[in-house]
Amino acid sequence: MSGGAYRAAGVDIDAQDEALGQVKELVRSTATPGVLSELGSFGGLFQFPEGMRKPVLVASADGVGTKLRVAQLADDYSTVGHDLVNHCVNDILVQGAVPLFFLDYVGAGVLAPEKVVQLVQGVAAGCRENGCALLGGETAEMPGFYKVGDYELAGFIVGVVEADALLGPERVVEGDVLIGLPSSGLHTNGYSLARHVLFEVLGLDISSPLPVASGDSLHRNVGEALLSVHRTYLPAVRSLLESPDLHAMAHITGGGLTDNLPRVLPTGLGASVEKGGWRPLPLFDLIQEAGEVSTEEMFRVFNMGVGMVLVVSSSAAPSILSELGASGHSPWRLGRVRQGSGVDYGA
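Now predict its structure.
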């Protein structure tokens, strides 16, 4: 044992070493052919994929916000790391990129090895699901900065796409069709409002049965509903990424459809969304009714059951809908691209 003075100051080096010993095995479980280094190097080494003509790297960073507070209440940190990876994968996917490797950051007031391992277990599961390597990361114990029991989790992803396969506003034209893919729940946005309504307004706790109609939810209780893993859309769209008929995609995160769809549309074009094309998950109905939240605000705070939007050519829309449906991804026609700006919602 060592580090007695440092431990007295609030930092336990031995606890960090205990956690890192288990984390190394999780990291190895995500290794892909491009990985050239072991965890513990000062920097992770990754060999660039061969055979690409004009590769472009796409990078992103994100966190899971106050969903971590729900994990704390449930004393279950095993899923939020998975959320983090899938969120980051989706963020680079909208530009046509597939992930290469991932880095994570875990911060804590007092490091509990079992909690850190749970967090990284989720990260490793997300990396394996998406075929990217967990190349490295950082674990920081910061007493006096984070409170005891508090954790922070952030992730950093790098992916790659051929230059001529980049997706974005430049490819979008008037008349393009919007295709929606379903979310699995709140994903990683809107948790401050959701927690306020469910815990403070309704007086529920993490283990309370979800107060929706019987058979109207896949979740037995509030904790399960709020911790439902953020869905990755890479398996759904991978086969479409090099299609000239896929023009853009929008990951529906903070800001909802209202703020995220315009990010992938060129100046002079807006979107018309047909709200009657899908039914928002019962959890959203519950939050809106109990919290007396306007429909306009709901569509800016939450994904409302739409996790990803594909912008495709009108001529190819029927075949793309059919292909996605045949592979079990439950798509629907969400709307269309029109002249103007912003997003309007029809019946």
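Strands lie at 55-63, 98-108, 133-141, 151-162, 177-182, 246-251, 269-274, 306-312, 332-339, 343-346.
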